[in-house]
Amino acid sequence: MSSPHDYAPHDYAMTVDHLEVEFDTYGGTVHAVRDVSFGLRRGKTLAIVGESGCGKSVTVQALMGLIPMPPGRITRGSAKLGDTELIGLRERTLNRIRGNRIGMIFQDPMTSLNPTMRIGDQIVETLRVHRGMSIREGFKEAERLLDRVRISEAQERARQYPFEFSGGMLQRVMIAVALACSPEVLIADEPTTALDVTIQAQILDLMQALQREEGMSIILITHDLGVVARMADDVAVMYAGQIVETGSVEAIFHRGGHPYTLGLRRATPSNAPGRAQQLEPIAGSPPDLFHPPAGCGYFARCPHAMRICERRMPEPFELTEVSGRADEIRHRARCWLQHAQAPRTEGVNQNDAGREVS
Amino acid sequence: MWRYTVRRLIQGVITVWFIATATFAAMHMVPGDPLGSERATTESIRQNLEARYGLDKPVFPDQYLIFLGNMARGDFGISFTQQNRSVNDIIREAFPVSAQLGVLAVIFAALGGVLLGALTALNRNRLPDVIIMFLVILGISIPSFVFAALGQLAVVRLNDWTGQSLLPVAGWGTFQHMLLPALVLGLGTMAFLTRLMRSSMLEVVNTDYVRTARAKGVPPLRVFWRHQLRNAVLPVITVLGPAIAAITTGGFVVELVFAIPGLGRTFVEAVQQLDYTLIMGTTVFYGAFLVLMVILVDIIYGWVDPRVRLG
Amino acid sequence: MTDHPQALSAADFAPASARPDAHGITRPSQSYWQDAWRRLRHNKRAIASLWIVIFLLAFTLIGPLLWRVDPYAQNLDRISQPPTLAAQTLLVERGVQWEGVTLPQWPHAPSREWLTDPQRIELPAPEAMEVVGDPHTLSVRLRWSPVANAAGYQVYRNTYRPTAVNELGLPLGETWAGNDVGYEDQLALTPNTYWYSVTATDGLRESEQFASIAVDVQLATTIESALARGLIPSRDAAQAGDYVAMPANPFGTDYLGRDMLARLMHGARTSLFIGIAAPLLFVLFGTVYGAFAGFAGGRTDDFMMRIADFVIALPFLLFMILIRVASGIGPGESGIMPLLMALVVLSWPATARLVRGQILQIREEGYVQAARLLGARDHYLILRHMVPNTLGVILVTLTFAIPTAIFTEAFLSFIGMGVAPPVPSWGSMSNEGLKSMLNSPHELFFPALFISITVLAFNMLGDGLRDALDARMRSRE
Questions:
Q1: Contact A308 C8 (CB under 8 A)
Q2: N or C: which end of chain A has fewer CB within 10 A?
Q3: Which domain holds residue A139?
Q4: Which residues are paired to C173 by β-bridges?
C-alpha cells in the first residue's frame, strides 16, 4: 500500500504511515488511533484538529514514545523523522532524539514543569543531557533562551521556581525548554488551551516568530479552529481515531469535503464580516472506540449518511484543486460523498472525478 | 524564612506552656496524698518534705507560678522517690539512651519507607509490590510488643542454633544492643511511610512534569532521582514530625521489653511509684522535645519545597 | 484508481434509513450511596474485612453465652496448658501420704571399708526403675532397685530425655538411706510426659551414673476439689479412681490456669468496647466542634482551632497515662472508663480539624453558592449539602480511628497502664503472655493474633470505605 504523501512534491520533516495504537483497559481494548498517516512539511505548520478523545494527543505521544506501555501498544505503522524511524526504538536511542531533534510542549504549563526545580535548571537539564554542557555554560544558554522567548530579566527569572510564574510565562518557559537544542520539529499539544485568551495570542505569535527565526516544523494539536486559521499551513482533521480529511488551511476552511469538517466549521464562531453568527452544534457523540464501527465513524451523526457508509470506510478520495497554488498539499477526504456515484450534496465540496486514493 | 522560623518558635513556646499547665493540672487531680504515709512517717518529716517540695503553699497561684518559673529555667526539681537526685540528672542520664534508639529507629523507618515505597510503586502490581505491601499491612496491624517478643524469640533461637551469642536479647550498652530494639521500634512507622511513599510515588509517576522530563530525553535513572523521588518524598517529610513523636513515645514498650534504661521506662516507673516531680519533668521535657521536632521538620520541609520557603 | 472487491451500486448511495440513536444515555443513574455500596461490594478485601468484623462482634456478644466458662476461675493444677479439646480428670482421695519403700534386709548405709577405700569406684546407677500406682498430677510414686554401698539417692525431673548428668533437670529431693528406694513427687505437676532420673550417693559423693524413666502424668483432682468446682454433683456420685470430664480449653489456659477462650471473649469486650465507643464519642464531638467552628468562622473559629492545636500538641501516650492516673482507679474498678475518657479528651481535635476543613471547602463550592443565590436557608444547606458531603469523610475517619484506639488500649494495658487486673483485655493478656513466651507461646500468641486481626480488618475496611466513598481520596492501589 502506498502512503498518501510519498509521491507528493514536497520536502517532509516528518512522515507518519498507517499508525495504529491500542490501550488495554478493564473495559476491553480501546482502538485509540486507527490507521493514521500524515506528513509534516519542512518549515511549515501542520495542525491536527478534532474534538477531545479523537486520538490527536495519543498520535503525537506515540511518536515521542510517551505512551505508557503497558497498557498502551503500537500495533502497526511507522513514523520517520527525516530518515530515522521512530517507532520501536529503544528508550536509549529515543532519548537522543527527544528534546534534541523533536521538542514538545504540553497543554497545561502549570503542571508540566517540575515544581521543585528552578526554571533555569530545567532548561539546563536538556542542554546537559544532549549537549553535555556544564552547569555554568548551560545557565548562560538558559538565560539566552529565556530572552528569546521574550521573558525579561532572564538572569533573575532563571533562578526562580515555577510557582513564581504565571501560566503564560510558564508556557514561554516550556517553549524555551523545547527549543533549547534547536529541534527540527516542535510538537505543540494544545499549547494554548489552558491559557487566557489574551495570553493565547501572545504564545501563538511567539511560536510563529520563532518558527520564522529557526525554520523548524510544527505539529500543532488543537480543537480550536481559530488557532488553526491563525497558525496552520496544512490541516489534518481527525475523528474517532482516524484522519478524515487533509488539505491546506484554505481548502479545509473554504472547500471542506467531509461532513465532519463542515460540522466543525459551523460549530465554530467566526468574526468574518457580514457572516451570520449562527452556531450549530454537532448532535450526538463519537462512537465507542472499544468496538470501532466497520464503516465510517461519523455515520451516526452525519446528515448525509448513505447505506455504504455503515458498511465500509473509504480510502481517501483526492479532491480537485481549484487554487492551483504549486506549494499546496493535496486535498483528500475519506468520505463516500466524494465517490463518482454519490448524489450531489449542497454545501459539500464534491469531487468531479471521484478518484479514490489507495 | 526567618520570620517564619521565629513565628514557629514563639508558637512552640506557647504550646510548651500549655503542655506544662496541663501536666500541672493533671498531677494535682491525682487522688491521694503525694507524701504517702510511707514517705512522711512523722509530722515533722512531713513538714520538712512539704517545705522541700513547696507543698505547704497554696496550689494556685503560688505552686503553679513556682512550677512555671522552674520550668522556664529548665529546673525540674528533685525526685520524690530517688532522694537527692534531681529530675534533671535523671533525664540527662536516660534521654541520650532513648535518643540514640530513636534516631536509629527514625533513620531506619524513613530510609526503609522511602526506598520500599519507591520500589513498590515502580513495580506496581508485580511480585515485589505484592509481597512488600502484604508485609506492610502486617506491619501496620501487629502491635510493637508482639514484634518485640517475636524478635527476642528469634534471637534466642538464632543464638541457640549457631551456638554463640550473635545478638543480645535485652539490655543496653553496645551498638548490638540497639539493633533489635531500633528495628522493632521503627517497623510500624516504616510500614506506614512505605504506604504513604508508594501512593505519593504513583501520583508523581503520572504527573505532567515527569512526562515533560521524558519528552526532553532525560534518561530514566535521572528522571527517577531528579523528578520523581524528590517530589514524591515531600508528603513523607510532612508526616515525619508525627512519626518522630510516635517513635519516641513508642519507645515505652520497647524499653520495657528490652530492659533499656531510657526515658520511656523512667516515665513508666515514675508513674508506677507516683513520683510527682519526675512525672511532671519528663512530661514537660517530652512535650518540649516533640514541639521542637515538629518545628524542625517544618523548617526542613520549607527548605526542600521552594513553594513553602519562598511563598 | 483501484477496483473495490465488491462493485458499488446505486443502492449503496441511497440515504441510510435507520441509524443508531446517537443521543441515548445507556447507563442508569445511581445515588452517591448506591454507587459507594456497589464499589465497596466489588472490593474483595473490604468485604472479607466486613465479615471478620461481624465475626468479632459475634465472638464478643454471643460467644460468652455459648461458652459459659468463668474467665476469672483459676485452676492451679492446669497452668499454662496448651490448647486441648477434650480433657478428663482422675478422681483421687485427698492427702494420702505415701510412706515410701524401705527394704528391710538391705543395708541402710555403705560399709566402713567402702568409705575408707581410697581406690573406691563411683557407684553405679540403679538397675531398674518403675512407677508405683497411677502417676497423676497430684502424685507420682517411683521406686528403683537398690545400689550396693549407697547411703541415699537423689531424684531429678525433666521435661525431656536426659543424655548427660547435667541434663537431669529439677532436683526434686533425696532419700537418706541405701535401702530407702521410693520417692513421691507432688511438686507442681501438670499433665505431661516427665523424665525422672535417680542417682546414688555413698554419703560423700554423688554418682554421675543415673537411671531414667519416662512417666506420662495424667490430670487428677481430689474429690473435694471436684465437688467444689462442680465437676461432680455430690460426694456419692463418684469415687476415687473414676474419671470425670473437665471443661475443655480450646485455646489453652493462662499462667493462673484460667480458660483462655473465655478470657479472650471477655477481653474482646474490653478491647472492642474501648475501641468502638471511644472513636464514636470523639468523632461525634470532633464533628460537632469542627462544624461549629467552620460555620461560625472569624474569631470564634480561630479561638476554637487554637484550642484544638494545643490538645494535638500534647504528647499522646504520656497524657493518656497521666489522665488515667489522675482519674484514679479504686480497688475493684476496671479502669475502662478512665481509659475511654482519656482517649476522647485527647483524640477529638483531628476530627474537628478535618470536619472544619470540609465545611469551609464545601461552603465555597459552586453548588452551595448557587443554592444560596436561589435563597436556600442555612438548615437546608446543612442538611442537603454539608451533611451528605462530610458524612463519607467522617465515616472513613471513624473506621480508621477504631484500630488506633484498639492499639492504644492494647499498648497501655501491655505496659500495665490500661485496664486493671484481673479484668481481661487483649493487651493485658499479651502482657501476661509475654512472661511465659518461651514455654507456652499460646498465651501471647492468641491475644496478639486477635489484636492483629481486628486492627487489620478495620484498616482494610477503612481503605475500602475511603475508596468507595470519596473518589478524590481514592488511593491508587
A1: yes
A2: N
A3: 112-180
A4: C155
Residue A218: band (very low, low, confident or very high) from pLDDT cuts 50, 70, 90: very high
Chain segment A29-54, per-residue pLDDT in tens: 888 898 898 889 888 899 999 888 88
Q: What would the pLDDT profile of C265-313 be if each residue is shown by its tens digit?
A: 988 888 999 999 999 999 999 999 998 898 888 899 999 999 998 998 8
Task: Report the C-alpha gap between A252 and A260 in whole angstroms.
Answer: 11
- ipTM of predicted complex: 0.86
Average pLDDT over residues B246-251: 80
Residue C37 has pLDDT above 90, yes or no: no
Place of cell 480433657: C87
The closest alpha carbon to B24, from B68, B56, B58, belongs to: B68
In this predicted structure, the answer to whether residue C443 has a pLDDT above a threshold of 80 is yes
Residue A356 with chain C: CB contacts under 8 Å:
1-2
- In this complex, which of B211, B220, B305 lies closest to A91 when CB atoms are compared? B220
A201 inside domain: yes
Contact A342, A350 (CB under 8 A): yes
Is the CB of A342 inside 8 Å of chain C's CB atoms? Answer: yes
Q: Cell 504517702 appears where? A: B36
Residue C367: which residues within 8 A CB-CB, separation 6 or more? C385
Q: Is A235 on the interface with C (CB under 8 A)?
A: no
Helix (H) or strand (E) holding A221: strand A217-222
Residues 6+ positions from B288 with CB-CB distance below 8 Å: B16, B19
How far from the centroid of its chain's Cα atoms is residue C187's Cα? 30
CA–CA distance from A23 to each of A27, A29, A31, B220 (Å)? 10, 5, 7, 23
Please state the rounded mean pLDDT for residues B10-26.
Answer: 91
- Superfamily designation of domain B99-275: MetI-like (1.10.3720.10)
Do residues A77 and A20 touch, judged by C-beta distance below 8 A?
yes
Instruction: Give the residue extent of every domain in chain B.
Output: 99-275
Could you give the count of Cα atoms lying within 13 Å of A292 in the half-sphere of its Cβ? 24
Q: At A325, which CATH number? A: 3.40.50.300
Q: Give the closest-approach CA distance of A122 to chain C in angstroms.
A: 28
Instruction: Report chain C residues whose CB lies below 8 A from the CB of A306.
Output: 12-16
Where residue C21 falls among pLDDT bands split at 50, 70, 90? low
Name the residue type at position A9: P
Q: Which chain B residues are within 8 Å of C328, Cβ to Cβ?
A: 30-32
Contact A343 C2 (CB under 8 A): no
Chain A residues inside the 8 Å CB shell of B204:
none
In this structure, the answer to whether residues A26 and A130 fall within a common structural domain is no
The better pLDDT of the pair A172, A317 is held by A172
Q: How many domains does chain A fold into?
A: 2
Confidence of residue A1 (pLDDT cuts 50, 70, 90): very low
